[in-house]
C-alpha cells in the first residue's frame, strides 16, 4: 500500500488508475451474472492524469535529447567526427582501440609518453560502452556509422539523467498533490541547466554525464533504505542488494573517484540501519557494497596487471574496491551491532567504533591503502598536485572577478541562482516522503553543493540535484499558496512546471549553451589536421602542450609526449615536456632527438601565463609585446614564428621551421598574432659572409600567414676577423596552406641592403650559402 495512503486513508490513491488496482475494483463490484459496473469517474480521471504525465515526461525527454543534439553539425563540420574537447578526443580514441581489440580492453597506449608508451589511467567502463556502440554502428553503416552512433552516447545518457531526476522527485512526493508537476519541473530544469547540458552535448564524449547518472541512481538507491519503508521479503531485500552491487561497481567502472560518491551516501545507509528496530543485514545495503567491491576488483584486475599499481588513487586499481569493501563492512557491522543494542546513543557510539575498527583493519591488512586514499584526498580533492592546480575545472566555483553571483550564473544558469533561495521550501516539498528521506536527499544536495563550490568540476554531478531541489522548492511554495483556497489549488499544481519552463526558455545562459562555438576553428585541431598531411619521417613525435596533446594524438595520429592525462601516465615525460617550453634552442634540440620528436607546437596558447616570471600573465602592454617577457623567457621566439628581436637582443631559433599558423589570433594586440604555430625540426641553411669586426648582420624575411603580413628576423654579430655565420630555418620560397614567404633582405652595417634567396631544399639539407655584401667587408 502507498505509504501516504496508509497514514491517511482518506487521501486519493496515486495508483487508482493502474490496471491491477482497476482489476481489484472490478472483482469487488461484479455481480453473479458477470455484469461489470462502470468504473467510478475518479478512476477515469486518474488514468487520464497518468497518461498526461507520461506524455509530458516523454516530451521533456525528447526536448532534452534534441537540445543535446544541437551541436551535431559542429562535431562533423569537416566531414569527420572531431569532438568538442581534448578529453573527449581521447575517449574516442580509446573506444576505437577497444572496438578494434574487442572483447579485450587495451590498458597501454604506445603513442603517449613517446617513445616509451604508458598506461591509460582512466577507468574503462564508459569507454567500453562507447566501444559497443562503435561496433554496432560499424555493423550498420561502416566506420562512419560507428562515429555517428558513439557521438550520440552522451546525449542519450543526458536524457537518462533527466529521466532519473524526474523519478527521484516523483519518489520524494508520494501521494502529495502536485507530485507529477514537481517531477516534470525537475525534468525541465535538469534538461536546461548549462553544466548538465554542456556535459552531454552531441560531440562531447566524456564520462562526466555517466558520472552524474551514477550519482543520481546511487542517491535514489540509498534514500530508499530510509524510513518509512514497507516490510520487504527476502526476495525484495536481495534485489535491493543486487541493485547496490551493480550501481557501486558501475560507478567505479565509470570513474575511479566514485568512492567519494559512495562516501556521500554512506551516512544515509548507516542512518537507516540505526533507525530500524532490528535491522536485517540483507537489505541494509552493506552486502550490496561488498558485492560491488568484488565486481570492481574483477574489473580492475586487468588494469593492475598492465600498469603494475595494485593500490593507486589515480588509476583503476584495488584501492577503489577496498574502499567499497570498507563502506560495506561498516554497514554490515552496524546492522549486526544494532540487532544487539537498543536504539539510542549506544548504537551511534557502537557504529563509530565499528567504523574505526574497519578502517584500522583495512590499513593493517592492506599496507599502503590508507596512504593512497589520503593522497587522493590531498592531491585530487584538496589540489595539492601542482598540475591539477592549473586546470580550470579544479578551481573554486566562486572565482569570477565579477562576483559570486556571476560565477554561479555562468556555470549553473538562473536555476543555480534561484535554487538556494528555494532550499527551505524544498524541505516542505520533500516532506511527503517522510522526514528521514527528505533529510537524506538534502544531505546529498548539501554535500554536492559544497564540493561544487570547492571545485567547479562537481557542478556536472550537482546539476540534476540542483534541478530536483529547485523543483521541490517550487512544489513546497505551491503547497503554501494552495492553502489560500480551493480556487488557487489548481493553479498551484501547475505553477512549478510553468516556472521551470520560464527559466528554461528565458535564461540567456541556457540559450547560449545551445549555440555553437565561434567561427574561428579550434587551433589545436586545425594544426593537427595540417600535420596529418605531412610525412612523419624518422622522428614522427610531436611535443605539444599537455592540454592540446590529444588533438595531435587522435586527429593527426601522431605520437605525443604529454596528453590530457598530465603527469599520471609518466611523470618524467610530462615534466620534461613542461621544461621544453622554458629552455633555449640549444637545450631543446638534444631532448627532441632523444625522444624522436620532429615537430613542436607552441604559441600564445601555452607560453603566456605558463612560462616566464612574475608578469607572465601580462602577454603584452599597450597593444604590443611585453619587452621584459621576451627578454627573460628563453623560449620566447616560439611565440613569433621562431623570429628573433634584434632590438632586444632576442636570438632567433635556427632549426625550427614554422610550417603552420592558426587562424585564431591573440585577443587584445594591435596586430594579428596566431595563438599556435607548428614547427618542423630542420637542419637549417648556413649563411656566411664578411662584415666589419663586431658588426651586426640582420636578415629579414617577409612571412605571410592567412594573408596577415609579418617579418621574420634573424641576426648575428661578426667576429673579430669580420667573419659571420647565421643558421636560418626559414626558406624564402616556403608555401604551405597557411604560410608563405618571399625573398629576404640582408642588412649589414656600412653596406646597402642585399636581396637574399634561400631554397627550402637548402634549409632541409643544411646547405652552406656564401653571401657577398659589397662594401661590408672589413678593410
Automatic annotation (TrEMBL):
Transmembrane intervals: 51-71, 148-169, 260-276, 288-306, 318-341, 348-370, 406-426, 438-455, 461-481, 488-506
Biased composition annotated in UniProt, kind: Basic and acidic residues: 12-30
UniProt domain Archaeal glycosylation protein B peripheral: residue ranges: 684-768
Keywords from the UniProt entry: Membrane, Transmembrane, Transmembrane helix
Organism domain of life: Bacteria
The keyword Ribonucleoprotein is assigned to this record: no
Pfam families for this protein: AglB_L1
Ranges of Polar residues composition bias in the record: 1-10
Iron recorded as keyword: no
Region (Disordered): 1-41
Record-given protein name: Archaeal glycosylation protein B peripheral domain-containing protein
Native source species: Anaeromyxobacter oryzae
